Amino acid sequence: MIAIRLARLDEREELVELQRRASLANPGDRAALEAHPEAVDTPAEQFLAGQVIVAETEEGVCGFAAYLPRGDGDLELDALFVEPDRWRRGLARALVAYGSELARRSGARTIHVIGNPHAREFYLSVGFESWREASTQFGPATEYVLAVRDVASP
Questions:
Q1: Rounded mean pLDDT of 109-124?
Q2: Residue 154: per-residue pLDDT
Q3: Average pLDDT across the chain, whole number
Q4: CA 69 from centre of chain
Q5: Has residue 152 got a pLDDT over 60?
Q6: Residue 53 and residue 64: Cα distance in Å, rounded?
Q7: 13: alpha, beta or left, given left = phi > 0 and alpha = psi -120 to 50?
Q8: Looking at residue 146, what is its pLDDT?
Q9: What is the pLDDT of residue 118?
Q10: What is the rounded CA–CA span in Å between residue 139 and residue 145?
Q11: Whole-angstrom Cα distance, residue 128 to residue 87?
Q12: What is the pLDDT of residue 117?
């Protein structure tokens, strides 16, 4: 069973370390992140604003996501990380489904995310569509969009 809830500020350090483990588990990201460890962070302001959610199982907190409001009324999926030893168990999918429900309740129509190439299959599998090319400080990426009405609960 996966439970989704708002993250607490006192969990920030633990979640940033989870983010670091998950990021470094992707070989394509490792060198860039080792060269720029400051890039792994989820700001305290996001926790205080209620923008960070966590996924918990009987094993404890296993993943988290951050959904930020955009100026156009939509949401930006700013972070989505799961413990590497718990990948492919539906945790990220549950975090996206919960975020879609948050978007619906806030009146957003779309969730945007900028994903690097190794995340492509996941984003497409949960209903995101490639929208346009993007770039990050670490290289080329894709901006994906998800119409919130298209997401099914896990």
A1: 91
A2: 45
A3: 90
A4: 14
A5: no
A6: 6
A7: alpha
A8: 95
A9: 83
A10: 19
A11: 19
A12: 82
Nearest residue to 57 via CA among 11, 109, 92: 92
Distance CA 89, CA 41 (A): 24
Distance CA 137, CA 18 (A): 21
Instruction: Tell which residue, 107, 65, 90, has the closest CA to residue 153.
Output: 90
Report how far residue 7's alpha carbon sits from residue 25's, in angstroms, rounded to the nearest whole number: 23
Give me Rg for the CA atoms of the chain. 15
User: What is the C-alpha to C-alpha distance for residues 41 and 18, in angstroms, rounded to an integer?
Assistant: 10
* pLDDT surpasses 50 at 45: yes
* Residue indicated by tokens 């918990």: 56
Output the pLDDT for position 153: 47
* Torsion angle defined by CA atoms of residues 92, 94, 98 and 104, in that order, rounded to the nearest 10 degrees: 90
What pLDDT shows up at residue 148? 86
**SS3 annotation, the chain:** CCEEEECCHHHHHHHHHHHHHHHHCCHHHHHHHHHCHHHCCCCHHHHHCCCEEEEEECCEEEEEEEEEECCCCCEEEEEEEECHHHCCCCHHHHHHHHHHHHHHHHCCCEEEEEECHHHHHHHHHCCCEEEEEEEECCEEEEEEEEEHHHCCCC
The residues near 137 (Cβ < 8 Å, ≥ 6 apart) are: 36, 39
